[in-house]
Amino acid sequence: MLRRSPDLWLFLLIAFGLSWLFTLPLWLSDAPTGTLTFTLIGVAMMFTPTLGVLAVRLRGRRLGDPATGREWAVRTGLSAGGSRGRTLALVALAWFGIPALVVVAIALSAALGLLSVDLREFSLFRETLAAAAPGGPPPAEIGALVAVQAVSMVLIVPVVNSAAAFGEEWGWRGWMLPRLTPLGTWRALLVSGVIWGLWHFPLTLRGYNYPELGAWAAPMFVVFCVTFGALLGWLRLYSGSVWPAVVGHGSLNSSAGLMLLIGDAADPPVFAVAGITGLVGSALMAVVSALLFKYRPVERPVPVAAG
Fold first, then answer.
1. Nearest 5°: phi and psi at 263?
2. 86-110 confidence digits (pLDDT tens)
3. How far apart are CA 26 and CA 270, in angstroms?
4. pLDDT tens track for 229-285
5. Alpha-carbon distance 271 to 89, whole Å?
6. Cβ-proximal residues to 156 (8 Å cutoff; 6+ apart), any chain
7. By 3-state DSSP, what share of the chain in percent is helix, strand and coil, each rounded to 5?
8. Contact between residue 247 and residue 91 where contact means Cβ atoms under 8 Å apart
9. Which of 14, 104, 156, 295 could connect to 52 by a Cys-Cys bridge, CB 3.0–4.6 Å?
């Protein structure tokens, strides 16, 4: 199937090729992570899958694809799906459910002895603030500041992050995942998750995720992409819309840093193991995804987006 799909290869060529092209300045300048330049390039890279979708659409139009813009929107998940009410409910579930999984992953990590938390002094967060602005807030204010940060991660930041997450989700879950469903649902989720993880290589090889692992961070992040991609895939397939996956992606990008607020500076977290982006989180999301597909199975396949 993959060999006979020129649209898929065009999409991947654009998404992967532009991701390396956009991040080339990071490799040439050796810019450190956390800088404004690194962040802006990372955000720009997130829109390369969307450019891949647009390239497929342009090719289809040139080959005489009769689909209207409205039909194309439905095919690629831009509509509300089969049920507007269901889609809105899943948007809310993604918005608030993902942070709940982040909290559960932290609790599991702590219970397993894989994470030390400091809920009294918030020493890791205090250390981070001190590095950014020497002196930092008075001890009496650190708790309030943590609370404000945590609320913002759940209620406000997902709105902003979802705008960038759309750049990825319209490509990976909106267009590509339905294209792969003839392989079978689980194979489609696995293949799409691996592709998604490989696409991150320009950043993961530069130390954006799990910097303590060096080059091993890249394959490690593929594991996370497969499990989180399965959860986002269920949101896409069950709703028939890409918007729950967009919000879920934006919500995770917003709340994944919660460990930095409550971590212990004396025993910093190992993100490859603990929390939502570590092995604990991947195992948790794999279990949740399996339960969702079992008890809320995809009722009908999403229309394949032919180019």
1. -70, 165
2. 999 999 999 999 999 999 999 999 9
3. 25
4. 999 999 999 999 999 999 999 999 999 999 999 999 999 999 999 999 999 999 999
5. 31
6. none
7. 70, 0, 25
8. yes
9. 14
